Fold this sequence. Notes:
Layout: E1 4-13, E2 19-20, H1 21-26, H2 33-40, E3 44-45, H3 54-69, E4 78-82, H4 93-101, E5 107-111, H5 117-130, E6 136-144, H6 154-157, E7 162-172, E8 177-184, E9 192-193, E10 196-199, E11 202-205, E12 210-211, H7 213-234, E13 244-247, H8 252-261, H9 273-276, H10 283-293, E14 302-309, E15 313-320
Parallel strand pairs: 4-5, 4-6, 13-14
Antiparallel strand pairs: 1-7, 2-3, 6-7, 8-15, 9-12, 10-11, 14-15
Bound molecules: acetyl coenzyme *A (ACO).
Acetyl coenzyme *A is lined by residues 31, 35-36, 39-40, 115, 154-155, 158-159, 192, 211, 213-214, 216-217, 220, 248, 250-251, 278, 308-309.
Amino acid sequence: MTIYSRITGVGSFLPGKPVSNDDLVARGIETSDEWITSRTGIRFRHLSEAGLTSSQMAREAALKALEMADVAAAELDLIIVATSTPDYIFPSTACLLQGALGNKGAAAFDVQAVCSGFVHALAIADKFIRSGSHNKALVVGAEVFSRILDWQDRGTCVLFGDGAGAVVLEASAQPGILATALHADGSQASILSVPGQISGGQVSGDPFLRMEGQAVFKAAVRVLVDVARECCAAAGMSPADLDWLIPHQANIRIIEATGKKMGLPKDKVVVTVDRHGNTSAASVPLALDEAVRDGRIQRGQRVLLEGVGGGFTWGAVLFEF
Length: 321
Ligand code: ACO
């Protein structure tokens, strides 16, 4: 019998109240609602208060996903957290989440693929489940990007937000995840990075997010279209067979250009970037949770999740809900 992995629960968490573009202007950032909205589509983002960590937000999202799946935390045998803003260098955010959920014994580790971290984590969990070695996985994307932003750099600080999204993935005889594809190109490492290091108790280099915006933009559209086609082909489908596309939420122009090149109408593309900003590894599960809970995504429909981010990394997961 073929074993599939099926998403049985989704959940998400956003910290605090929405922060508008005008709120950023009021905080002294030299920008405008017009500049941010016209170039990125971002109107709001959520920013965590001091002390709130990725593992704490992950716990909130995870509890909602576990409740929807009707799975107890103790039943999980695999916990993967995608984050580039872990609570600590170690232990992993996944182990901290495991402790906070009261699970003992599950495999628990982090995945670091920046904004494509969640699709990487989901593809890994799918392989664990399909191999028969694991049965119930919790996969989370959780980020506090506000901690690694240079609030003096208006070209980047207006783009990002904080949050977490989670799914429960279970072994099933029914599909399930149909195809996954993951890629990276380390020669592009410098176009999006936080090039700082900790050594001897000191931070050396630059501990803030740095980005070559236009290079990222061009690379993102190209790889998102390519990996969408690759993943659909692997499942014997074409993009026209998709019910929903949930691309990484970085910029409305990247999202619209990707949908257009794939020939998808706008109403098949889930968009949250206007209200969440770019929450890196949390962006895709946050959007998935919203579209499931508001009733847009229905059981039996085909959904393509796509991520792209620093590394450079990119990937996609195609599933039947
Ligand atoms: N408010 C007002 N003016 C600004 C701001 C701001 N927040 N930021 C930059 N500017 C100014 C610049 O100083 C510059 O002024 P100048 O012409 O007087 O020098 C002007 O706006 C144009 O700056 P550019 O950086 O060239 O602006 P661009 O048109 O490239 O837009 C943007 C920048 C929105 C970042 C764009 O490159 C982009 O969308 N890139 C994609 C990157 C992305 O989405 N990254 C997210 C992370 S990556 C990921 O998740 C995959």
